[in-house]
Amino acid sequence: MEKAVTKKTPESVRTNEVEKEPLPLTAPLPYGGESASINSMRKDRLVHLIRHNAKPQNFSGHCMDDRDDIKQTSKKEYISNNMTQEQLKKQFQEIEDNFNKAVITNDINEIKKCITSDWALVDSQCGIIPQERFFSVPEQGLLSHSTMTKEILRVKIYGDIALVTGRGQNTGTWQGQPMEADEWITDVYKKENEKWLCVLTHLTPVKKIV
Fold first, then answer.
1. Which of 40, 120, 141, 151 has the most CB atoms less than 10 A away?
2. Is there a contact between 165 and 185 (Cβ–Cβ < 8 Å)?
3. 111 close to 137: Cβ distance less than 8 angstroms
């Protein structure tokens, strides 16, 4: 009967098997601090960037300026998303009042300051009216407004899009004849370069109760 042979493992091999993680070159500093060697690397990197007039970066790979922009955007979104309904109504009441003032100037360039390049009007009689067609009417002297008011009743924000609903009245002339209107109005706004511009205006006449 053969005698079992026990193979001895050298001490150095056993030590290497246990120590799977290599020892750090420098010990970490307390309270989450970093080793002196890492700080030295960061200092060298910063000196390199300054010498080459490069844009400084933090060490997660993002530019510091971009990081600040993200913080500013997040802050603005937080403020917008956490405004109360009354605060939103007050904000868009002012925006709509400026829109109304632009319309009653009957100056197309003034009106264009309040809307996007693809703004359109929708009403119950003519359906979808592209802005080129709408602007051709006052240009021909067929339509003019003398008064326009709106009361904002509801505002909903979806990122850079706002749905603004209210009731408005206006007076003026149509083909030389006096006109007046009382309408439910929904304006769709889009934020462009930190400014709210109207994308679509939808009008529904208020039904008169006899």
1. 120
2. yes
3. no
Distance CA 38, CA 52 (A): 21
Of residues 128 and 26, which shows the higher confidence score? 128
**Residue 109 structure tokens:** 């360039």
- Residues near 169 by Cβ (< 8 Å), separated by ≥ 6? 147, 148, 149, 180, 181, 182, 183
- All domains of the chain in start order, with CATH: 36-80 (no CATH), 85-205 (3.10.450.50)
Q: How far lies 30's CA from each of 21, 23, 40, 92, 156, in Å?
A: 20, 17, 17, 52, 49
CB–CB of 56/49 below 8 Å?
yes
Amino acid identity of residue 100, one-letter, is N
The number of C-alpha atoms within 13 Å of 10 and in the hemisphere containing its C-beta is: 3
pLDDT tens, 48-92?
A: 555 555 544 443 444 444 455 545 545 555 555 678 999 999 999
